[in-house]
Amino acid sequence: MSSTRNKLIKILEKTRNEYVSGQFLSEELNISRAAIWKHMKELEKDGYEIEGKSKKGYRILKSPEKLSENTVQWGLNTKWLGKKVIHKPTTASTQHIAHQLAQESAPHGTIIIADEQTAGKGRMNRKWHSTAGKGIWMSILLRPEILPYLAPQLTLLTATVLADVLSKDTTIEPKIKWPNDILINSKKTAGILTEMQAEQDQIQYVVIGIGINVNQTTSDIPENINSKATSLQIETNNAFDITNLIQHILQTFENAYDAYIKNGFPNVKDKWESYGFRIGETIQIKTIKKNWHATFLGIAEDGALLTKAEDEEIKRLYSAEIDW
Ligand code: BT5
């Protein structure tokens, strides 16, 4: 979106119920009144209802419900996250677009969102089912100044952000299953996919993919996953405003990320453990080589899974699947 449109949205948002004159807008934005009118027409295409009155000016009567670059930025209270938003009605995967934009020097904090993904990606080439218009399918492009081996901490940080937002915006109590699943009543409602491009000791960029099932009903969830997947709507019987949720996630993410860069992982660890699923219980651990049972102790200072086996040996695991 053009930075002029960004500024226009900011002004209209501040003055919400009052008229803003074309003259004022044209001076503030340094563009002609005809250009202002064109921008208003673009906003209308996105579903904004705009009233234009001669002598008084413009005012917004209604913001659209549909997702767009404008609606995500309308009222978004962030410093750097989501200053550039790309919205696609349908795409194979928002991760693909994010990687492409990253190679083309898109800035830290760029957001890619889609109404629908036709080839949504999970970890290890698994599929992520992304029902049209009913969930959040979003990638965040970051250029963090941290060492590559610390990047998995960003997955854990993102999980705490999603858990915080869901516990504030809904009546449910989310849990985090190590490392990247958000569960409600033991069923998965969100997943995170962190992908990275890095050299030996420097990250070029990280793409954090976030998938959240929001307004799906039971019949929207494919049969092969319906015993273990759920949505906010299924669990609460309420429909949620996807744009509001996205904005809340972005605002919470920005604060959490800035605090992490400043203070490191300890606070993230504590928060993660406060939402941790089955901490203190026996879990089944699966790696490519073997399966075994151990007590889940929590996460280590570096984000690793901490377990204690029957022989009391404490292990740190960095990549494994857990089950029970
Ligand atoms: C994940 O993988 O949980 C990461 C999901 C990330 C999705 C986002 S959406 C935006 C961005 N663009 C993408 O293309 N991807 C990211 P994993 O832990 O591997 O879980 C995948 C498994 O979860 C699948 O094998 C299914 O069993 C299950 N699954 C698939 N779709 C699901 C859904 N919508 N809800 C719950 N579970 C699902």
Automatic annotation (TrEMBL):
The keyword Membrane does not apply. One of its GO terms (biological process) is protein lipoylation. Belongs to the biotin--protein ligase family. InterPro entries: aa-tRNA-synth_II/BPL/LPL, ArsR-like_HTH, Bifunct_BirA, Biotin_CoA_COase_ligase, BPL_C, BPL_LPL_catalytic, HTH_11, WH-like_DNA-bd_sf. The keyword rRNA processing does not apply. It holds the Pfam family HTH_11. PROSITE patterns: BPL_LPL_CATALYTIC. The lineage of its organism: Bacteria, Bacillati, Bacillota, Bacilli, Bacillales. NCBIfam families: birA_ligase. GO terms for molecular function: ATP binding; biotin--[biotin carboxyl-carrier protein] ligase activity; DNA binding; transferase activity. Its EC number is 6.3.4.15. It is an enzyme of class 6 (ligase). Residues 70-261 form the BPL/LPL catalytic domain. It comes from Virgibacillus oceani. Keywords: ATP-binding, Biotin, DNA-binding, Ligase, Nucleotide-binding, Repressor, Transcription, Transcription regulation. Residues 22-41 bind DNA. It catalyses: biotin + L-lysyl-[protein] + ATP = N(6)-biotinyl-L-lysyl-[protein] + AMP + diphosphate + H(+). Biotin binds at Q117, K188. This is Bifunctional ligase/repressor BirA. One of its GO terms (cellular component) is cytoplasm. Acts both as a biotin--[acetyl-CoA-carboxylase] ligase and a repressor.
